[in-house]
Amino acid sequence: MLDDFVTRAVLAAIGTALATGVLGCFVVWRRMAYFGDATAHAAILGVALSLAFSLSVFAGVLAVSLAVALLVFALSGRGVALDTLLGVVSHGALALGLVAVSLVPGQRIDLDAYLFGDVYLVSETNLAVIWGGALIVSLVLWRHWTALLTATLSPDLAHAATINPRREQLILTLLLAAVVAVSIKVVGALLITALLIVPAAAARGMARTPEGMAVLATLIGVMSSLGGIALSLRYETPAGPSIVCVAVALFAISTVVSRLRA
Q1: Which of 149, 158, 169, 179 sits in a 20 to 30 Å window from 231, CA-based?
Q2: Chain segment 156-207, per-residue pLDDT in tens
Q3: Cα 249 to chain center, whole Å?
Q4: Domain annotation covers residue 33
Q5: What CATH code is carried by the domain that includes residue 115?
Q6: Would residue 245 count as lying in a domain?
Q7: How far lies 254's CA from each of 19, 27, 206, 229, in Å?
Q8: Which helix or strand (DSSP H or E) is residue 49 part of?
Q9: Distance of CA 239 to the CA centre of its chain
């Protein structure tokens, strides 16, 4: 079954949606969208380093994404406005990555595949990485759900419950870097944040509990992935942008439905 490239594409897209669905809720709740952009843009630098040192793309992207995420985490709250810091890191990492890719000797690199994703080129090894990453992210979120939710709702309440909000933020930071590394083959570095934010934003207006929003965001992410691939196959459009377009359409529908209910 896995010899069929469409089947591999569908499985990869669903695995990515499972990894981004619940985590995206925390990104929306904590307003970490720009942080996601900074981490995702750094992925291009990871691609360049992996090619230069003959490493797997996943390993290079994960290493650089983790480094950038930890750098932003360490510098936040130290005299520089967070939005300014994220802007510098985001655009600086992307520019440095594009320059580094052009300097890699003896390599002909299809940048579009890393910027916008190419789910049809996913291999069985990529599938194992995507589903393994999705499983790890889901398990960590399930294990720390109460602590993460409490720290998100109120740092003071978290302190009262002997929860360290800074530690929970670090966990989210590391998970976000892992999701970036997992998702780059599906939607690319420029669209990863959209797959985190849009399904969660679509679910927010229709869910009544945080748990309900997490489940609904995951379902919307899966529907967006399947719809985007179907759209791509039907009209020969790029798969990654098509997935995001379907997600945005579902967000628009959910917004209208929520207002009619209100």
Answers
A1: 179
A2: 888 888 899 989 989 998 999 899 888 888 888 888 889 999 999 999 988 9
A3: 19
A4: yes
A5: 1.10.3470.10
A6: no
A7: 22, 19, 7, 21
A8: helix 43-52
A9: 16
